[in-house]
Design a protein that fits this description.
With 604 residues, the protein is an alpha+beta fold. Helix content is 45%, strand content 14%. The chain is elongated.
Length: 604
């Protein structure tokens, strides 16, 4: 028997457990949610079918489809959406299921191509289809060397509006400015920018805008050798449609015409862009960065880090742009355009020399380049571009009516299973069965609080497979109690006192409990990583409840039995306690006599 100094203190253990439960409940309330989040099959959600587009109209290669599924899955995980499913259907379709209401933005982000290109600018003009329009100011975003405090990369405070030669173009601030973000299939939508005063930046600004002089005639676009692109550029209307100029997203084209991504102060810029100098696949990392007043960064930005090849190529294009600026500060070739899915996100002028640090950033006015826009843009860039272009064949909102019926059925099944376990424990273990019932209640409370906290903190959503896993875990949890109770009764059958039997039985039972739970947890872990969809959800629920089972057995069941052993009802072996030594001894004798009789009959 343990010495008084080392004797277990079950009361303290129970108080510690209850304190943890109170803290978990308080955390759930602090998060502002007291009910679990439900998955697509229980609460409804959005289902979208994306169809791959190929130049010839045929089926895309299977390798590219598998790569697209992988990238889409990474984007889902990066957005923190739990229980979403991305699966290939047929040879050219991908089905995306996202649980919860209001998930159209998430669905659009998942299917965005996100092809990022860096091209040198060769001509700019107002977005109207006119050969004599005045050049439009450059966008307000910037690409800058993150390690250069002297702003080698371009940086400015906002897009300006200069007078336009076109009679239809408005130089005054417009209240109907189009929100940003159409380049990401209208997914990266930021708030509409507030109209600015329209002041033109001074020549001392790090980002020097082209002056308001008339455009060169069609036969005099310096450096542009593709007459078809010049013709397309002059006829291009960036004020209508979705601003995706034909061919602007094709990296194999030497020259392309492209539109600005956003509209500010009623104006949109159009560009002639040169060959692709850096591709998005050479971006190693992309992260959303908050404003930094010390560095003069007033808005959110997206920090880009290139790999070795990308850093070298970015240094080369900024060298060419810087050289063009030194020769003529108003030259369009002093600008480097950041093109995303065929639209120009920004086109800053490189004023103070090449950027060779291997890093750059994309930023803009605080009114439009907010945290949501920067986070979404970084998320689609960090996992790379999709190898194929996809169109939304269908998008459906899944009703939660069927899910509520399934949830009701699952809860009824769980109640039936729990009731049967309770009846068995009370019938077979009598008073000791109350400990088992109490342990199941504590396990249920712990599981509920964990699911609520995981839902708010990690986006975990409870689906039907999760509920099935939780129901199955009732038997796993009860099995741990039974192992301990049977070891305790074995000690009493051997004629030992109850107080010492509690500790001796626990030493024998806990190893068995740990081994059994370890096997179950490893099986759930392997199943979770090898399976997908509902099977992975089932495995997650089993793994979670297995860990909770260990906590409950160690910190509730065993201390509770130790406390009850000190009471008269259990300590003196009341017939209804389930720990009556006489009844247990008689049962052992009857069992031994039956075994002897069976052996004798077999020998005869």
């Amino acid at each position: 028997m343990a010495s008084p100094r080392n004797a277990p203190k079950p009361g303290r253990t129970l108080l510690a457990l209850f304190a943890v439960l109170v803290v978990l409940a308080g955390l759930a309330v602090w998060q502002g949610r007291t009910t679990p989040k439900l998955g697509l099959d229980l609460a409804g959600g959005t289902t979208v079918t994306l169809t791959a587009k190929t130049p010839g109209g045929g089926d895309p290669p299977a390798e590219q489809m598998n790569q697209a599924v992988k990238i889409m899955t990474q984007r889902v995980n990066g957005l923190g959406v739990s229980d979403a499913e991305v699966a290939k259907q047929g040879s050219n379709n991908i089905v995306v299921n996202v649980p919860g209401e209001g998930q159209s933005r998430v669905v659009s982000l998942i299917g965005t191509t996100a092809k990022l290109q860096f091209r040198q600018v060769f001509a700019t003009a107002d977005g109207h289809p006119s050969g004599g329009a005045s050049p439009s100011p450059s966008p307000s975003h910037s690409a800058k060397d993150k390690g250069d405090k002297n702003d080698k990369g371009a940086k400015d405070g906002g897009k300006s509006a200069s007078p336009s030669a076109s009679p239809t173009a408005s130089a005054s601030p417009s209240s109907s400015s189009t929100p940003r973000g159409k380049a990401l299939s209208q997914a990266l939508t930021a708030p509409t920018p507030k109209p600015s005063g329209g002041a033109t930046p001074s020549p001392s600004s790090p980002l020097v805008q082209p002056s308001g002089q008339p455009s060169a005639p069609a036969q005099d676009y310096p450096g542009v050798t593709d007459k078809a692109v010049i013709k397309q550029f002059e006829a291009l209307d960036c004020y209508s449609g979705d601003r995706h100029a034909p061919g602007a997203n094709d990296p194999s084209r030497k020259f392309v015409a492209a539109c600005d991504q956003d509209e500010e102060n009623g104006q949109v810029t159009k560009y002639i862009l040169g060959p692709v100098r850096v591709l998005g696949e050479n971006v190693d990392k992309a992260n959303a960065m908050p404003p930094n007043a010390q560095q003069g960064q007033a808005s959110w930005s997206v920090s880009l880090k290139f790999d070795g090849k990308g850093a070298r190529q970015f240094g080369e294009v900024t060298t060419d742009a810087s050289r063009a600026y030194q020769q003529n500060p108003s030259s369009p070739q002093a600008q480097v355009a950041i093109v995303l899915d065929g639209q120009v996100v920004s086109a800053p002028a490189i004023r103070e020399g090449p950027i060779t640090g291997g890093t750059a950033s994309i930023d803009g006015p605080p009114e439009s380049f907010d945290q949501q826009y920067a986070t979404d843009l970084a998320n689609v860039l960090k996992y790379g571009a999709l190898p194929l272009e996809f169109t939304q064949s269908s998008i459906d909102e899944v009703s939660s009516t069927l899910g509520s019926d399934q949830l009701t059925g699952g809860l009824i099944a769980g109640a039936i299973g729990l009731g049967l376990v309770v009846l068995y424990c009370l019938f077979y273990y009598r008073g000791l069965g109350l400990v088992a019932v109490s342990s199941l209640v504590v396990a249920s409370i712990t599981t509920y609080e964990s699911v609520v906290i995981l839902g708010e903190g990690m986006g975990f959503r409870l689906s039907l497979p999760h509920i099935i896993g939780l129901i199955v875990s009732i038997g796993i949890t009860a099995d741990s109690f039974i192992v301990y109770f049977e070891r305790l009764r074995d000690e009493l059958r051997a004629g030992r006192k109850l107080r010492s039997s509690v500790e001796n039985a626990w030493k024998r039972a806990r190893r068995t409990i740990l081994v059994a739970d370890a096997v179950t947890f490893l099986a759930a872990l392997v199943l979770y990583f090898l399976a997908v969809g509902g099977v992975a959800g089932f495995a997650f629920a089993m793994g979670l409840t297995t860990l909770i089972d260990i906590v409950v057995v160690f910190f509730f069941t065993k201390p509770m039995v130790a406390l009850l052993s000190r009471t008269k009802f259990f300590g003196r072996g009341h017939p209804m306690s389930g720990l009556d030594p006489r009844r247990l001894h008689k049962a052992a004798q009857d069992k031994a006599a039956a075994a002897t009789a069976r052996t004798t009959s077999q020998e005869a």
